[in-house]
Amino acid sequence: MFKILFGEVQQGHLARLGYIGYSILLEVLLLIFIVAVVFAIGATEHIIGGDLQQAQQQLTDNFSLPFSVISILVLVLIAFSSLNLMAKRLRDIGLSGWGFTLLLVIMSILISNFIPGMVSTGFSLLMTACLALIPSNTFKA
After folding, report:
1. H or E segment at 117?
2. 72, 79, 123, 125: most buried by Cβ count inside 10 Å?
3. Extents of the domains making up the chain
C-alpha cells in the first residue's frame, strides 16, 4: 500500500479500480484525522467543564506547535499521495503523468480563484470521474 501511495513516482501505473479504492482510502484517512481533532477539542471541553473558549485556549497553550507540525505533515502526505495516484492513473491512461497532474492542479486553482460558484467543484468532479472511468491505454500512440 505504501509503495502505491508514495513510491513509483516516475514510472508507476494504476488501473481504474485501484485508483478509486486508494482515493477513497485517502478521503477516509483525512476524515478520520478531522474527526480526531474535533474529538480532542470536545474531550478537552468536557474535562474543563463545558467552557469551549477555555478549552481552545488550553489546547493552544499546550499543543499548538506539535499539533501544527503533525497537521502540516499529515496534510502534505495526503496531498502528495493523492497527486501521485493521479499521476499514476494518467500514465495508465496513456498521458504524461506529472505533466498532466501539474496542468490539472493549475487549472483547478485558476478555476477556483477566478470563476465563482459551483464551477470549481464541478471541474473537480469531472476530473475525478474522467480518471475513474477512462479505460487504460486510451491515449497511447
Report:
1. none
2. 123
3. 2-133
Q: Nearest-CA neighbor of 85 among 33, 134, 12?
A: 12
- pTM for the predicted model, two decimal places: 0.79
pLDDT (tens digit per residue) in 48-97: 676 677 777 777 777 778 888 888 999 999 999 999 999 999 999 988 88
H helices of the chain, in order, are 2-6, 16-48, 52-93, 97-114, 119-133
Buried b (16+ CB within 10 A) or exposed e, 73-101: eeeeebeebbbbbbbbbbbbbebebbebb
Cα(65)–Cα(85) distance, integer angstroms: 30
Q: Do residues 120 and 108 lie in contact, with contact meaning Cβ atoms separated by under 8 Å?
A: yes
For residue 134, the one-letter residue type is I
Output Rg (C-alpha) for the chain, integer angstroms: 19
